[in-house]
Write a structure and sequence with these properties.
CATH topology of chain B: Pnp Oxidase, Chain A
Structural class of chain B: alpha+beta
CATH architecture of chain B: Roll
Helix content of chain B: 25-40%
CATH class of chain B: Mainly Beta
CATH superfamily of chain B: Electron Transport, Fmn-binding Protein, Chain A
Largest interface: A-B, 28 and 27 residues
Oligomer: heterodimer
Order of helices and strands of chain B: HEEEHEHEHHEE
Structural class of chain A: alpha+beta
Number of helices of chain B: 5
Number of domains of chain A: 4
Largest sheet of chain A: 8 strands, mixed
Largest sheet of chain B: 6 strands, antiparallel, barrel
Number of strands of chain B: 7
Radius of gyration of chain B: 17 Å
Shape of chain A: globular
Chain lengths: 714, 156
Amino acid sequence: MLVLPFEKIRPNHASLVGGKALSLAVLAQSGMVVPDGLAVTTNAYHEYLAASGIENQIRRELTWRPVDQMRWEEMWDASLRIRNAFLRTPMPSRLRRALARAVEQRFEGKPVAVRSSAPGEDSSTQSFAGLHESYLNVRDTESVLEHIRLVWASLWSDAALLYRKELGLDIEKSAMAVVVQELVSGSRSGVVFGRHPVKPDCVAIEAVHGLNQGLVDGSVAPDRWTLDRRSGDVVDFHAAEREAYVALSRSGIAVRPLPKAKAKRPPLTDGDVKRVYAKAIELGEEFLEPQDVEWTFKSSRLYVLQSRAITTTAAGEGDNRSWYLSLRRSIDNLRDLRGQIENDLIPKMEAEARRWEKADVTALHDKELLNEVSRRYARYEAWLGRYWDECIPFAHGVRLFGQFYNDVMQPADPYEFATLLSGSGLLSVERNNALQRLAERVRADKLLRTALASGEVRSGHSSFWKEVDKSSAEFSAGLSEGSGIDEARKALGALLLQMATRTATPENSARKRRQTLERAFLAKFRGKKRREAEEVLDLGRASYRLRDDDNIYLGRIARQVDVARDEAKRRKLKVPNHFKGRLAMRPTGGQQHAAEGREPSGSGFVLRARQLSGQPAGPGFASGIARVVRSPEDLFAFRSGEVLVCDAVDPTMTFVMPLAGGIVECRGGMLVHGAIIAREYGIPCVTGVSKALRMIDTGAQVQVDGYLGVVTIG
Amino acid sequence: MADKESKAARDNEALETLRRLLTSQQVAVLATHKEGQPYGSLVGFTASRDLKSLFFATSRTTRKFANLAADGRVAMTFDDRSHAEADFYEAVGVTACGHAAEITKSPRSRALKQFLAKHPHLHDFVMSPHCAFVRVRVEKYVMVRRFQEVVELVVS
């Protein structure tokens, strides 16, 4: 059985059709008004997987590195690649024909909703909203089949991977059923909570104008009624600021501004509220326990869209998963964030950094200095807070664009979109260009080269050194505490000498490739849709750029906290304990890796890595000598052509990257800073090699395969 | 301290995987060569407790015995395949490189006892006069997991 219509679904079909389909069928069979529909069973999912070979791709994504060790971003990466495989692999023809016939007969070309219905979820997992995908207003058969594949793919969504333990997610056992249901374009919709989350004696109703997708995904604020459960009397009403509603668009749905007349009044009349309340009570009796019910009114007809037993999510301490999921943002929200970051956060951060860079902390009295340290530290914390609240969520713009791009283009490489976003004028690249210009001077001037080679940093070449000093204020941040101007000049001079041995990489071919991709992408859209596509692309580019730039501004702030703190330490003043550590170049994430013995004690064996797996984050192949970077000093020792091995590339250290033959990073992800810069410069890069620092020594011969995501040692 | 222990545990993890594999598997592939022509054969085996020696039995008339008598350099491959597609990602494969020679003195009897404890049905075969008991002194193990992660355990 590939398909079961609602009227034929029985309780013993639960594992074939999933919880959502079963409860809808029960409702329809008990005479409730439910949009007509059918379930595509898990048999269809299994048949597709067996024929397509996707099963092994999923297996590969989930075993190259234990999922428990993946960062959330890596789960997103894995899930994007899996999703792309579903997008690009059509159904085998027997399955295709069977599903197409069932859909055509049942819906006769009417628009439908395609929704996930995962079997085997117990009630505690049903409450994790948004684990799996649902799509509204899907129109032709071909599109319905494609969306069925996308719902299947969402069994492996990043959110599902995060909650894999609760879901019991397992390649061998898990499957996905799909509900295809007639679309009801309701004029007011909402959710009724059969038991108020806070007041158990009450029922809560949330309602919006338009489709309830706006309420469910949080893009439209609802009006809220609290009713006494026994009497049905309204005990509290909270009106929302009614500004928007979700409506059907030509394909899919769209958020629209709410007409003034509608904005003035609540979505429900008193009579409507009574009917919704009565429905909640009725369903609670039908299912023998209070239900959370999604409903919609089309003219005066009340449809039940979904009903499920009430569950509460108990998030344990240290459980950040719901926070990760909250990073998924809508285009509107990203647009607002961008405005805040570009027009407010960054200019203010930059102004503060500049003020501090100009101020002379050595002129302060001891007490003033200590005050200044505390003040700067507090300011830094405040900036860091805004960085987490605004910049990190805004980085979702890259992911949003990635998925959008893949849906439209269905590219062979699921990360093609990153090429399209690159070259957007990253601050670190511009800073590197400034260094490159200094390196050109070194290359052109033999006397200067000799001076640099012999470590002569005082005599002559005064205009050159003036420029170097200016740069070193930005780059030598990481140099050890108390290093003077001569040390900074020596370190940067040695680096420039290295850079002078290379010519700048030609940018032309990359630019052409970007232009070709952009043309092909935009050619898929006409008129209004094209403007939307351009906006998503623009947001994606801004997000890609700011992901890197914001760290640089924060780095400048951090550096000036260090400057004040170092001065206080130099004077042997008592600096409060929590200010002790330096802020600049502090590892921004990833795990701590110490160089440690690789000899399991007493075993008589020595452990050596021969080949380590990671993510192919920058295409290309490189062979070279490893330079393991643990401290700023390691950075300045960097030699042209070496392979940079580090925990996490911090944007403040990207200035050596143009010198690198290849990059190996412990921190995982296709869109981490190291990967972004590597792609800008066309450097082979593998990320997520968690054992790299532990298993690779400076001086080892390594090969970096940025196509396969493999690092070979020796 | 706890951190140090967990690091040791991580290092031992590769060693433990190796031990588990060598204990659980009955048969390995032995690679020898004759004048440069490689030759593979299946042999029942055991490993010494310190994992530095591997033992198997073979008739002196076999090709593999002639090969290893001429050149003791051999490799042995072990794995936990289940002959399913999942093997690509889930199976562990280990190759031991070392030197093979017939063993006639200590620790022959102890090793033989262990060997027969694991393969009791080979008793008559091993005890027959023309059967040789061979020891491979391992120089290193190369372990492949998760499709393309490769580590080496080198005898120190």
